[in-house]
Amino acid sequence: MFASLPLTALRAFESASRLLSFKAAARELSVTPTAVSHQIRSLETWLGVPLFERLPRQVRLTACGERLFHSLHGALLDVAHSVDSLRPQRSAGHLTVSTTPAFAALWLVPRLGRFYAAHPDINVRLDTQCEVVDLQQDASIDLVIRYSLEDYLNLHNLCLFDECFAVYGAPEQVAQASTQVPTLISVRWHNSKLYALGWQAWCERAGEPWLLPSRPMREYDEEHYALQAAIAGQGLVLASNILVSESVASGLLVPYKPQVSVDGAGYSALCVPGRERHPPVRAFFQWLREEARLSGHSSKIR
C-alpha cells in the first residue's frame, strides 16, 4: 500500500513547509539546500501539482501545498509519538506552551500545580515572549494561548474564555471611590485595539466623571504590573475578569460597581492540526477545558 510513497521527499517537504525555507530545512535534515530542492521538485513532478511558489529570497506554499502539509505534519507527528512510546525507559513528556507574561503569571501558573498533580510525567516549559509565534514554522512550540479578536481557521482551536473588563481595587480604595475621585491605573498594550478607549467606555456606562485632563493615568506595560499597583492601594485598575480572578478570590482586589463592564476579546488554545493528538498536548488541552469550566468563565463558543 505504501511502497510507492516517496518518503524521503515527503519528509523534506514537511520540513521546508514548516520552516518556509529550503535552506532551514536542509540544516534540520543535515543535507544540502540543493538536495532539499531536488526532493521537492521530484515530489511535485510525482504529484503533478506545484507545492511552492518560488519568490525572491523566500518560498510560499500553494493551496495544494497547504493541504498536503496539514495532513502530512499531523501524520508524521503521530508516527514520531508512536515510535517514542515504544522506547524503553523513555524520559518524561515535554510540553512547550507560548503565552503572554500576564496570562502566565496571573492565570496559568497559579493553577499549574493541578496539572502536575494529574500528570507528574509531563514537564511544562513556558515561553512568554510577547512576539506572536508562527506555529507553522516553529516546531519547538507545542501550543499557544492567545488573546485576540481573530479566528484561526488553519489551526486546531479550543476557545477558553468569554472575557469582560471591569474596575477593581484594594478594598479601602474601592470604599473611598464613592466619595473622592480615585487614581486610575491603565495598561499600555502592544495591541492597542484590544484596550483602546476601555476606561472611557466604562466611565460612560458607570456614569463616573473620572476622565479629566488634569488627572493623568498611571500606565504600565503589562497587566500583572497594573494589578500589583492596584493591590498596593495605588488606585483603581480596569482589568480582565480572567486575569484578576485569583486576586479577587483571595480578597486582595474587589470590584467597584461590579454590574458595569465592557466587552473584551477571547482566549484560545491553539496548535498545528494533528498535534492535538500528541499525548502531552491532548492532556493539556483537556486540563485547560476543565479549568475554564471550573473558573465559571468558559467560552460559550465551541
UniProtKB/TrEMBL annotation:
SUPFAM superfamilies: Periplasmic binding protein-like II, Winged helix' DNA-binding domain. The keyword Repeat does not apply. GO terms for biological process: DNA-templated transcription; positive regulation of biosynthetic process. The lineage of its organism: Bacteria, Pseudomonadati, Pseudomonadota, Gammaproteobacteria, Pseudomonadales. PROSITE patterns: HTH_LYSR (PS50931). This is DNA-binding transcriptional regulator, LysR family. Keywords: Activator, DNA-binding, Transcription, Transcription regulation. It comes from Pseudomonas mucidolens. It comes from the Bacteria. Pfam families: HTH_1, LysR_substrate. One of its GO terms (molecular function) is DNA-binding transcription factor activity. Gene3D superfamilies: Periplasmic binding protein-like II, Winged helix-like DNA-binding domain superfamily/Winged helix DNA-binding domain.
